[in-house]
Amino acid sequence: xxxxxxxxxxxxxxxxxxxxFERGEGAWLIDTHGRRFLDFxxxxxxxxLGHAHPHLVRTLKEQAEKxxxxxxxxxxxxxxxxxxxxVAASFAxxxxxxxxxxxxxEACIKMARRFHWHRGQPxxxxxxxxxxxxxxxxxxxxxxxGESRLTDGFAPLLEGFDQVPFADxxxxxxxxxxETAAIMVEPVQGEGGIRPLPEVCLRGLRDLCxxxxxxxxxxxxxxxxxxxxxxxxxxVAGVAPDIMGLAxxxxxxxxxxxxxxxARAASGMTTSTHGSTxxxxxxxxxxxxxxLDVMLADGFLDHVRDMGLYLQEKLTSIAxxxxxxxxxxxxxxxxxxxxxxxxxxxxxTALRENGLLSVPAADNILRLLPPLIIGxxxxxxxxxxxxxxxxxxxxxxxx
Length: 399
Hints:
This protein is α/β, with parallel strands linked by helices. The protein has 2 domains: 21-52 and 299-398, Aspartate Aminotransferase, domain 1, CATH 3.90.1150.10; 54-295, Type I PLP-dependent aspartate aminotransferase-like (Major domain) (Aspartate Aminotransferase, domain 2), CATH 3.40.640.10. The protein has 12 helices and 17 strands. The strands form 4 sheets. The protein has a 7-stranded mixed beta sheet with strand order 4-12-11-10-7-5-6, with helices on both faces. α3 packs parallel to α9 and α10 runs parallel beside α12 (376-398).
């Protein structure tokens, strides 16, 4: 777009697909023409309980008729209950509520720096991060990721971040200096191409942080809240961070984020050191509590693990039949990716035309992020649609 071209009323920072959805039912979305789409995008891992979940709808309606917003000048009962429940279900001892994943990660970064400043070590302010990471779109979070696709045109970036290759423990160790405050990592990279950090690496990072008296930050904005079959992705490795960012699935579609921390890590966060006008408001926290009602119920996460294995088996079988199109399957639980041999956008388009929604990611990965309530019948339908799209592509290629 040149300076003389008209700009639309909606800032053109997205290349939007020409579909308008007017309603949803569980794992399905229905557009304005009545076409049904099986939603394996979930709003980019957000609508973990599907669309129009009755418990979430009922909770939101009830709260909307009471009070929406009061600000954090006053106590908020739903917020206090949410914090208590997140603490009880995690490593954390305290919670800060905000509105998005980017805000959650901003709080994580500020908390890590403040921790060392509070102890009289202001020079310890650098954070080691990983290439291929995505932590949000604020100045701090794009500086943390350091990817040119995020940072071009936004210089000068914020100082204090040292990027190292993904899963390269020796590079991490070499990057840790007397100025290091923390190591920040996604247990499973989402935007970076559905790349789980090996369990041995997660444990190694914990050991390294303990050795150097620095903090370990996990970004579970995308991979948390049941997405991998555990409430939090890091739990499979039996390690715990000092600080963690959550969002996306926490609200089931209602905007909310959270920074979770140990009492030690949060020791520098005293009155007025951080805040949010809307963060933790009654509407958002009522809905987030409703999400936890479902996710913490007996058998829910077992179901996610079962469906994840079932979907992974289906995808692996498909990949074996189409090695010229699919090079492999990645991921955990219901956070899976197809490594495409050709452009992943072409497959995403073919699937969408066949009534299946997906999400492209880096490294030519097509993400499949169905609602966590997905059933076998819907997995079978999705597998049939993927198979059909690949067969059509193979036939057209042969012609």
